[in-house]
Input
Amino acid sequence: MTEEFKNSDIEILVATMNRSSLDFLVPMFADKHYSEFNILVINQTSENNIAQSDHPRVRVINVFDKGLSKSRNLALDNAIGRLCIITDDDVVFKADFCKHIIVAFNENRASALISFRVEKTDGVLYKKYPLQRLTTPKLSNRLNIMSIEMVIDREKVQNANLKFNEHFGLGAQFCMGEEAIFLHDANNLGLGLVMEPQVIAMHSAQDTHSRISVWDKYYVQGALFTALLNDKYFLLVLSKLAHEIRRNKIKLNQILVAIKAVAAGRAAFKKII
Output
């Protein structure tokens, strides 16, 4: 029988940019210094802006490259922890985050990936989550999972050669959607996915979706939905439009712009593949 997971099995994979020190790690932890955790920092930077670690449990890889998915993949390739938290440099972990992760993975030993809840800085849940644990999340659930909610069983993911699609994510041609494709690929590979109703971190409420134009958002959706469903992509487009119309996130006079953007994004993605 495989040994049960414990706190020392957790490694935190942090994506950051242009750091010359690791001071940014201090506010990420509620009650302990960051040096008490196993951490791998991927610092996408320049040659005159290098970060170094003085702590044995904290490793840093400085890389002169750009793209969030590239950073995530480099972290996965170099991770050593049995359980790896995928996170960013502006997340604040709850004091009991390790306990929730260990309990969840020990209760779901077949799972390759478990997603957890995140709060806003005011203590309100970041978004609407399933009320209870889901052991077979549907596509609609998987589309809603953020990378900072993910914890993975490194061995299972590496054995399946599962990677983030580097055409998607901040700094790539399509600035969102890398999580959805990663989870879709994991599901297609038969890897166990679970959504766990425990909060492990806090994060500011602003996200990429709220900062970009209708054209840019739906350009990405055209590429993303094609990657997920190929010729049935428009089913997801219609569902997305209906959802955003109901929530007043898109106006009726913007629908034609959105559809044209979807077509452009789909065409760009088809050209890549």
